[in-house]
Amino acid sequence: MEDKRTKKMQIKNKFNKNKWDGSSLFLIVFAVLFIAMIFRSFIGGTSPKMLINGEMVSQPKTIEMSFSDVLRRAPEIQTMKIRGDEANGVLRDGTEYTATIKYDPELLSKISENGTSVTIDNSKSWVDYLGTWVPILMGLFFIWWIFRGFKAGAGGLSRSLAQQNPTKITTGKTKTSFKDVAGIDAEKQELMEIVDFLKNKEKFKEVGARVPRGILLSGEPGTGKTLLARAIAGEANVPFFAASGSDFSGIIVGLGVAKIKEIFDMAKRNAPCILFIDEIDAIGQRRSTHSYNDQDREQTLNQLLIEMDGFSNDTGIIVIGATNRPDMLDPALLRPGRFDRQVYIELPDLSGRREILDLYAKKVKIASDVDLQDLARGTTGFSGADLENLLNEAALHAVRGGRKEIAQVDVEEARDKILMGPRKVRKMRPEDIKLTAYHEAGHAFVSIMYADITDPIHKATIIPRGRALGMVQHLPIDDKVSMTIAEVRANLSIALAGRAAEEVFFGADKITTGAESDIAMATRLTRYSITTAGLSPKVGLAAINQVNNFGNRTALENASEKTAELVDNEVRSWLDLAHNDATKLLSKNKETVKKLAEELLARETLTGDEIKEIVLGKKTKTVDKAKKTAIKKTKKSGK
User: Fold this and answer.
1) CA end-to-end span of the chain, whole Å?
2) If we measure between CA atoms, which residue out of 605, 231, 125 comes closest to residue 409?
3) Residue 530, by phi and psi: left (phi above 0), alpha (psi -120 to 50) or beta?
4) Other residues' Cβ atoms within 10 Å of the Cβ of residue 87
5) How far apart are CA 239 and CA 233, in angstroms?
6) Handedness of CA 281, 287, 288, 294 (dihedral sign)
7) What is the pLDDT of residues 47-90, one digit of tens each?
8) Mean pLDDT of 620-632
9) Residue 232 in contact with residue 221, Cβ under 8 Å?
10) Between 355 and which of 78, 182, 396, 426 could a Cys-Cys bridge form, CB atoms 3.0 to 4.6 Å apart?
11) What is the number of other CB atoms lying within 10 angstroms of the CB of residue 306?
12) Helix axes 255-269, 295-308, angle to 10 degrees
C-alpha cells in the first residue's frame, strides 16, 4: 500500500519541483536593489538635525532656486558646489540653497566675478556605480544561467523550463466504465479490442497482431469523446493520463518539445497505460512549407510524431486523441503506426438518445408521467451533453416550481428553453397577439392535413421565446436519413402556411415580418433539393453545390450563369407552388382555422391531440408502436 502511495506521489510531484533557480535569484537581486533605492530616497528626503544644548534642533530650512534666480541673485551667492545639473551652497546671509542649473563656462565666470567660491564635483556615488555595473552583472548572470541548462545535454534547458512550467496532467486510475457510456454502441464495439489488448496482451502476441498505437476520436462537441477515453481506461484497469493540446504550447521556444518528452517518459514508467490528449488539433495542425511563425508548434508536432512511432516500439502506451476538426490534422499524424484507428462519434439516433436519457434519469428524480420516449423523439440533433443539460434544466425548473421531482411540464419547459430560448415577458399589442395566433394556427392546420407523410405535430404555442413570437413543434416517429419529394413539398407548404394565414385572414397589406425564419428554412430546403439532391426535373441530376474542404457549401459552384438563373427560377417556382397550396387549404377551411386560432388565444398552448380534436372534430389517442406491440403480446399470451 505504501509503495503504491509513494509511486503516486512521485508521479504527482514530477512537474512540481521547488528548487532554487535563476528566476529566484533574479527576484532577490531586484528586490534588494528596489529596497536600497527606497531607503536612499527616504534618507535623502528627511531634514537633518543637530544637537544644541542637549536638544535635537532642525537646521535652517534650505531654499530652492531656479536657474533664473541664480542669474538674478548671483552677487548674493557666497559658495556654490556643482554636481551634474544640481548645485548647492550658502548665500552671503548664511541661507543654504539648492538649484538646478545648466553647465556653462560663461555662467561660472560671471558668478566667480562676484567673489563666489565655485567648486565642481566629478566623483561618482555608489548609486552611480550600481546603475553602471548592475545591468552588466545581470547580463552576465543571465548568460551563465542559459549555459547552465546545457550541462545535461542539448535538451537540458528545455527540461528545466518544462519543470518550471508544469503541464496540467490528470493521473491515476479512473472508475468510469462502458456502463457509463450510452448511445454509441457501435463506437464502443470498435474500442473493445483496445481493452482486450490491455487485459490479455499475450493473446495478441501469439498471433503476431499489433495493437493500434493510437486512436483518434472525432465528432461533434458533447458526443462523449472524453468520457469514452476514460471508459477504456476504466474497463482495462490501467493508469490514465489526460492532458490538453494547449498545455504543450507556450511563449518559450522549446517548451512544447520538453513537455511532450516529459509526459511520454511518465507514461513509459507506468506502462501499460492510456495517454489521452484532448483537443489535439492545438498541436497537430497541418504543417506548411512557408510557415515561419509557427516553428515552435511544428517542432512540438515533430516530437509527438517521434514519440508515437519513433525508434522505440512496443512501449505499451496507447495514445487517444480527441478533436472536433480532424480535417486540420497533419497527414503524418494520421498514418498507420500513429493514429491507426479513427473513430467518428456521431450524434445519437432515436434509440441512442433514449439510452442516454435512461442513464441520466437515474441520477435525478423523475415523475412517472414523464415520457422519455417522446422526449427522445423531440430532441433530434441533441448530443449526450445536450440531453444531460436538458434534464438538469428540467430539474432546476422543478425546484423553482416547488416540486420534489421532475414533471412533464418541467421537461417541456426545458426543451423549449434550449430550442427557442428563455420565455420573454414582453408587452405586445392585442393585434400582434391575434396575428401570431392565426400565423401558428395556419402552420398547425396544414400540418394536420399532411399528417400521413410528415412528422406528427406535438404542440403549438404563442408564448414568445427568444426571437420567436410562437412556434409549432413536431415529434418525429423515428430518425430519417432521407425525404421523398412528396415530403419535401408537404414541409414547404407547412413552412409557408403561417404567411398564407396572414394573407387569408388579414389581407395582403397586413402581412408582417414574422415569417422570416419560415421563409429562410423553406428556401434552404428548396435550394438543397434542387441543386444537391437532384429532385428538380428542369435542373436535372447535376450537383451544382459541392462540399469544400471545411464542410461548407459555396453558392452555385460549377454552374454557368444560365444554370444559376434556371436554379433561381426553379426555387421561386417551388416556393410559389407551396404557398399557393397552403393558401387553398386555409381558404377552404377558414372556420376551422379560426376556431383553432381562438383556442390558441384563450389557452396560449395546445397539444397535438388537442389540435387534432379541433381540426378533425374527434378525440384521438396517441399510442406509440412499443405500446401497441406490448398490447398484442399480452393478448397472445392470454394474460
Assistant:
1) 58
2) 605
3) alpha
4) 22
5) 7
6) positive
7) 444 443 444 444 456 788 777 777 777 777 778 887 777 788 88
8) 41
9) no
10) 182
11) 15
12) 20
Q: Give the three-class secondary structure for 99.
A: strand
Scan for cell 530650512, then name that residue: 61
Closest to 576 in 3D by CA, of 487, 509, 492: 492
Going by C-beta distance under 8 Å and a sequence separation of 6 or more, which residues neighbour residue 483?
491
H-helix or E-strand containing 276? strand 273-278
Task: State the amino acid at position 519 in one-letter form.
Answer: I
Q: What is the per-residue pLDDT for 52?
A: 39
Residue 323's CB is within 10 A of a number of other CB atoms, namely 21
- Distance of CA 329 to CAs 16, 135, 321, 335, 417, Å? 31, 46, 11, 11, 36
CA-nearest of 44, 43, 89, 84 to 62 is 89
Q: Which pLDDT score is estimated for 53?
A: 43
Spatial distance between the Cα atoms of 321 and 301, rounded to a whole number of angstroms: 13
Q: Which residues are designated catalytic?
A: 440
In the 8-state DSSP scheme, what is residue 149? Answer: G
Look at residues 481, 474, 560 and name the one whose alpha carbon lies nearest to residue 521: 474
Decide if 127 contacts 40 (C-beta within 8 A): yes
Question: How far is Cα 462 from Cα 605, in angstroms, rounded to an integer?
Answer: 7
Q: Angle at CA 487, nearest 5°, toward 485 and 491? A: 120
CA distance linking residue 609 with residue 622, whole number of Å: 7
Does residue 250 contact residue 180 with C-beta atoms inside 8 Å? no
CA dihedral 401, 407, 411, 416 (to 10 degrees): -50
CA distance 433 to 425: 13
Is residue 231 within 8 Å of residue 180, measured between CB atoms?
A: yes
- pLDDT at 506 > cutoff 50: yes
Query: Which helix or strand (DSSP H or E) is residue 7 part of?
Result: helix 2-12
For the record, the C-alpha cell of 225 comes out as: 469523446
DSSP annotation of 287: P
Give the pLDDT band of residue 6 (cuts 50, 70, 90).
very low
pTM here is: 0.65
What is the rounded CA–CA span in Å between residue 496 and residue 515?
A: 8
Centroid of chain to Cα 545? 30
- The mean-pLDDT minimum among 22-31, 147-156, 314-323, 399-408 falls in 147-156
For the four alpha carbons of 440, 445, 447 and 451, in that order, the dihedral sign comes to positive
Count CB-CB contacts under 10 A for residue 134. Answer: 13
CA dist., res. 304 & res. 318, Å (int) = 13
Residue 206 CB-half CA count within 13 A: 5
CA distance 36 to 438: 82
In the chain, how many H helices and how many E strands?
23, 15
